[in-house]
């Protein structure tokens, strides 16, 4: 059995997909306790999204970050492997320049070089390890030359007790999440690596660029 998708209910086609979308949205609002706008806003800032940008948010869940990116860029598309998440995102995030599609990070049904920015938050640990390198390859493929990627994922706490608690509550995929492997995998996919930033105590963010000049 793969590691990396043992919390959340499981979809047959994508083992890490989360079905209980409304509960996730509620829990997310509670867990972030008023700091959601600040933390996700920081991701938008780190990706340096500007008004002309077309943005793809991979593993978008109920679409909070997708909508935030849409409020800064030209348009924003969220993709998620869970039909329930896509339905919930469409219901909640209704701005005209924000849309949602069903799809898997490791096999995107989207054209080459069609986005300026790819975002992904708290989703990589849901993708089975053997599919992650394909997911990073897909990020590279759908970005235009000069495009930016920002991958943020859960950084487990260092202390034994805290890790044990994370494992008990959220499962092994979060307790043992190897975030330090994100940067090398982005490099293997062809990206030029940029800064690694800790946004809040639990969010490890890696920024990278697709080589080439933006048009
Ligand atoms: C923990 S949620 C994060 C949602 C949102 N990005 C956020 O930061 O709140 C992880 C999301 O990744 C989705 N997911 C899991 N495996 C996926 C895959 N292979 N491709 C695309 N999405 C996937 C799940 O369905 C879920 O909505």
Automatic annotation (TrEMBL):
It comes from the Bacteria. GO terms for biological process: methylation. The keyword Methyltransferase applies. Coiled coil: none annotated. Keywords: Methyltransferase, Transferase. Gene3D superfamilies: Vaccinia Virus protein VP39. The keyword Cell wall biogenesis/degradation does not apply. GO terms for molecular function: methyltransferase activity. Residues 55-147 form the Methyltransferase domain. This is Class I SAM-dependent methyltransferase. It comes from Lentzea alba.
